[in-house]
Amino acid sequence: MTAARRASSRSAARVRDEADAARWGMTGSPTVLLDGADPFAVAGAPASVSCRLYRDADCHAEGAPTVQALRRALSGTRVPQPVTAAQECCDGNVLDPIGRSG
Fold first, then answer.
1. pLDDT tens by residue, 59-70
2. What long-range pairs does 20-24 form, CB within 8 A, spacing at least 24?
C-alpha cells in the first residue's frame, strides 16, 4: 500500500513573546501547524513560548511529535488528544498536560 502524497510547503516563524505566541496559536515550542491549526493542541491551553513536550500512547514524553503522530496528522486522521490534568498518566509529574513545567 502506498501513501497518498499531499502538496505541502514549510515555513518557520520567529516567536519572540506571548503576544506572538497567541497570534500564531502556539502553546509551547515546538508547535506544528497544519493548515494553520495545531493538530496536537490541548483544549484551553494558553499561548506560551515555553518548552513543550509531546506524550505518546504509553505516556513517554518527547521533544516533538512522533513520526507516527505526524503521519496521522498529515493524513487527516484524528490525532488522539493528550491526557488531561485529571487523567495525568505520570504520578508526581511536575509537567502540565501539554508538557510545560512551572
1. 888 899 999 889
2. 20/49, 21/47, 21/48, 21/49, 22/47
